């Protein structure tokens, strides 16, 4: 009979409780009691193996001493107690056990009765011990002693258990040949455990896929979309954070990701939830072509304008294509601004950029109109170097050629006063009227 647990003696009651060894250090062992989460430290002399073989019930009769697996008033956990058989009724046995609280009587089935165990403690008779190192990823699998039954049977060991602190399998036997066999089979057993773990993971994956398929069939709404291959990592997020956040939205039943085709499929009970999840996962890369002569002003001093666009839109990043880069098609006289982020944030960034570019274009058009007016106002030569004082003057008040104004010199009519000198014969009457009107407007603005 294969056993994968031990029995631990309680000195107060004399009963033996079932448990699993979790580690051994010197002459003590850490034991997890069966059907509980309680771990106790026990001397090896108080630990024994269960008896081997089946009980011959046909030889039992009233008055015989047996061991009964009982739950007494002394403990909430069942244990093997020495008891006396008082009666037999088919598969049922009437037994009486002596406990610290007095005599305890019970009726149990035959699987809770056995002949008293003659097993000795596991450190008696010079127990031989061997260890087999286990990779950390197999730790959870190794905690289940049932995974070592074939290994234990093949090696002939008395006991095989997993030591969590040392991350190794401990093999104990009274025979040296058993521990040598266990060491010989150790590497093969670890490989078998790895194969079993892989199979369990695949099975679990298929099971979850089946569950998702059933959920998807019941989902009322679904949306499928693709993202650019270079945006897949951003859409999924670090360690799948974006996917997890989208799946946590109330009303979402599942989200499927096909990384080979960069395709997302969202299933949900609520249409609003499906659309919200799509906004979180649909990452795009879009390009806006900006006039080359506007690029510097769009970027701003120290990048302040483009940084404001990034902050307000919420995009992940923006890249400005250089002259030697050719990752995207560049129009003549244009510089590509490449935005990366969710579809919504990229649309926001494009809106902000286009709004600011239109503003710059409007300013440039206003500047050209002003310059054209200045050309008409001051003439080609005067436009090239406009007078320092443009506070205005009247052609009627201009001093005649050859006379000095305030601050002027002979032959040079310019001065520091309100007059700016003679118009000369180069100005027409129409231009003089335009100049006078402009001066009045300038004064009016200055007074205001």
| Mean pLDDT rating | 79
User: Total strand count, please?
Assistant: 19
Task: Enumerate how many helices there are, as a single number.
Answer: 10
Distance between the termini: 108 Å
Shape: elongated
Can you summarize the main beta sheet?
5 strands, antiparallel
Rg estimate, integer Å: 46 Å
Unreliable segments of 5+ consecutive residues: 388-448
- Give the helix/strand class: alpha+beta
Q: Give the H and E element order.
A: EEEEEEEEEEEHHEEHEHHEEHEHHEEHH
Main sheet: strand order: 4-3-2-1-5
Report helical residue fraction.
Answer: 25-40%
Task: Note the beta-strand portion.
Answer: 25-35%
Helix/strand layout:
Elements: E1 6-9, E2 16-25, E3 28-33, E4 39-43, E5 47-48, E6 65-70, E7 79-89, E8 92-99, E9 102-109, E10 113-114, E11 128-133, H1 139-142, H2 149-155, E12 159-163, E13 168-173, H3 176-218, E14 221-226, H4 232-236, H5 241-247, E15 252-258, E16 263-268, H6 271-281, E17 283-291, H7 295-299, H8 304-313, E18 317-320, E19 334-342, H9 343-384, H10 429-447
Antiparallel strand pairs: 1-2, 1-5, 2-3, 3-4, 6-7, 6-10, 7-8, 8-9, 11-13, 12-13, 14-16, 15-16, 17-19, 18-19
């Amino acid at each position: 009979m294969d056993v994968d647990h031990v029995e631990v003696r309680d000195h107060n009651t004399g009963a033996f409780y079932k448990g699993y060894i979790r580690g051994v250090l010197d002459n003590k062992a850490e034991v997890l009691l069966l059907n509980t989460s309680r771990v106790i430290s026990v001397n090896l002399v108080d630990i024994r193996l269960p008896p081997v073989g089946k009980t011959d019930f046909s030889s039992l009769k009233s008055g015989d001493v047996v061991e009964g697996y009982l739950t007494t008033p002394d403990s909430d956990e069942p244990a093997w107690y020495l008891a006396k058989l008082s009666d037999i009724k088919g598969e049922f046995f009437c037994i009486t056990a002596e406990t610290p609280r007095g005599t305890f009587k019970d009726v149990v089935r035959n699987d809770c009765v056995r002949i008293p165990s003659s097993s000795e403690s596991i450190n008696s008779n010079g127990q031989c011990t061997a260890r087999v190192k286990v990779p950390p990823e197999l730790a959870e699998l190794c905690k289940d002693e049932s995974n070592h039954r074939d290994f234990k049977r093949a090696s002939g060991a008395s006991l095989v258990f997993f030591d969590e602190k040392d991350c190794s399998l401990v093999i104990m036997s009274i025979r040296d040949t058993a521990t040598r066999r266990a060491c010989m089979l150790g590497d093969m057993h670890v490989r078998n455990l790895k194969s079993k773990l892989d199979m369990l993971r695949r099975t679990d994956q298929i099971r979850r896929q089946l569950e998702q398929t059933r959920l998807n069939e019941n989902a009322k709404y679904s949306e499928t979309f693709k993202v650019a291959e270079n945006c897949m990592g951003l859409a999924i997020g670090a360690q799948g954070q974006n996917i997890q956040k989208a799946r946590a939205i109330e009303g979402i039943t599942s989200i499927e990701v096909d990384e080979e085709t960069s395709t997302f499929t969202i299933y949900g009970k609520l249409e609003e939830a499906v659309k919200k999840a799509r906004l979180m996962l649909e990452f795009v890369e879009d390009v806006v072509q900006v006039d080359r002569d506007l690029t510097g002003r769009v970027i701003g001093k120290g990048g302040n304008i483009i940084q404001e666009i990034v902050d307000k839109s919420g995009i992940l990043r923006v890249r400005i294509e250089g002259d030697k880069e050719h990752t995207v098609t560049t129009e003549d006289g244009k510089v590509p601004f490449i935005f990366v982020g969710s579809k919504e944030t990229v649309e926001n960034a494009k809106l902000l950029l286009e709004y600011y570019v239109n503003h710059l274009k409007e300013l440039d058009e206003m500047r050209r109109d002003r310059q054209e007016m200045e050309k008409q106002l001051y003439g080609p030569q005067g436009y090239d170097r406009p007078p320092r004082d443009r506070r205005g003057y009247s052609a009627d008040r201009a001093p005649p050629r050859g006379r000095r104004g305030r601050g002027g010199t002979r032959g040079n009519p310019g001065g520091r006063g309100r007059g700016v000198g003679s118009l000369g014969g180069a100005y027409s009457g129409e231009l003089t009227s335009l100049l006078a009107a402009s001066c009045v407007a300038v004064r009016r603005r200055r007074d205001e």
